[in-house]
# Entry
Amino acid sequence: MQQFINFLTQFRVYIIFAALVIISLSLISIGNTNKIGGFRTIVAGTVGWMQHLFSWIPNPVAIKSENASLREQNIELSYEVTKLRQALIENKRYKALLQVQEEAKYPYILADVVGRNIIETRSYITLNRGKKHGALEGMSVRSDAGLVGIIIAVSDNYSVVELINNRDIKIAARLERSRFEGILVWEGGEKFLLKNIPSQSDRFDMDSIIKINDYIVTSNNSNRFPSNIPLGKIVNVEKVFNNLFLKVYVQPLANLETLEQVFIIQYIPDKERNQLITEVENKLRLRKK
# Structure
């Protein structure tokens, strides 16, 4: 059936032409003018009827052209929807960034992430702000969600940031609700661990001190990071047999894999204090050897 329709569609002009030729020859053979006049009316009606008969058959060329036009319109609409979606995301991010600036305890430098590297299992990002913009080694970096890392190298126009998901970084942290303190570390995977939280205490009810969904922030006792920067949310607490400390899992608030814009916090830790702590740590390591 489809082949027949395709045949009619492809050759319908020729079919109509052949029918008209046959009718014309028939009229000529009659040779009577009066009769020809009557047949003229019949022919006109016949032609109209045949055109109506074949009008339902779709024109593949026209359909193909229409489909191509619709596809182009769909592509254009898709681009427009993507632009609107991106604009909405940008708007939400800028609002969050503005809120961080308004609540800032220290001055901030807004920077874009222009590079990402992994060196010896350590993660780093490169920012498009350097000494010319006020960035210095030792300054902390955060996103609108929370702490990201610390600057370890600076040039005139760029900074390299060591992310907090590195095994050597230890962050003095505080439970926002109970004010209890511990050390936040990363030992691999998506989650961090909050250490030095005792499983039992004569002075405190540990079940009320730490709970799932509690938030943690940087501590006032930190010698590297400013206080009260959001760090993460507690997602699991485990009691380990024969262990004096709880195993506390923390989901970081900052998504370290999708960073695009961050803030450099213009806060420099006390160098004398850090140097003293480093000397003490080195002496303790030597004693262990």
